[in-house]
Each structure stands twice: as C-alpha cells, then as structure tokens.
Structure of Polyketide cyclase:
Amino acid sequence: MTAKKTITVETLIKAPIEKIWEFWTNPEDITKWCTASEDWHTTRAENNLKTGGKFLTRMEAKDGSFGFDFEGIYTDVITNEKIGYTTLDDRKVDITFSQTESGIQITETFEAENENPIEMQKMGWQAILNNFKNYTEK
C-alpha cells in the first residue's frame, strides 16, 4: 500500500482562541463559513465534538447541480488546541490552534484523496480556511 500524500494549509487569525474554537466547532457558524467558493454553500452541519464523536457537513452547489456530505469521526479533541479526525474514506486530518505573538495560527494537515489533483485540493482547503478567517475576524 502506498503512503498517502499529505497537504498542509494554514492561516493566522487575529481573534481570541475561545471565539475561534466556538466558530470552528458550532454547527450554526460552520454553515456560514465552510465553503470553498461563492457558488457553493453549506446547507447543514452536525458536530459531536468528542473523541469517537461524528461530524457531518453538507456542501452543495448553489445551482443545485452537485452536493456531498463531508463526514468523519474525531480521534483527538483538545479544547482550544487540537482536533484530529478520520474521514469516512479513511483519510487522517489534524488541525492545530497555536498562540503566536500575532494571533492564532491554524494549521490543517490532511491526507489527499485520489480523485482530484493535489494542487486543487490544497486550493480548496485553503479557500475554506480563508473564509473561516474572514468570518471570524469580521
């Protein structure tokens, strides 16, 4: 079996960690920021934030042409510091929230899937992270 390629995206957010954590994990907030582009939206989010808990985020094209559920099971949850999960297609994702002098550094490292080019995946995840930054800092 070939090792999965990992991709890392990151951003720096100027907001208190408590606000960042709340917006990252609260389903109502997730539906407001979790999109990669303006022509998509998140219609539903469920989040049982604990080790062994499940999450589901429903993403759909606004024109109704396509949609999918992004789901996983949490493997590691340390409030205000770290979230780890495994997607239903068995890819591992680690997210860290680190305090710096300039704000909170969020780093997401995830195993790439095999359907889309690596650069496209990186751009999509980075776009979602950028939307989160904009939503949280406004």
User: Anything to note?
Assistant: The helical segments are 17-25, 27-33, 118-137. The longest helix spans residues 118-137. The chain has one domain: 6-137. The radius of gyration is 14 Å.
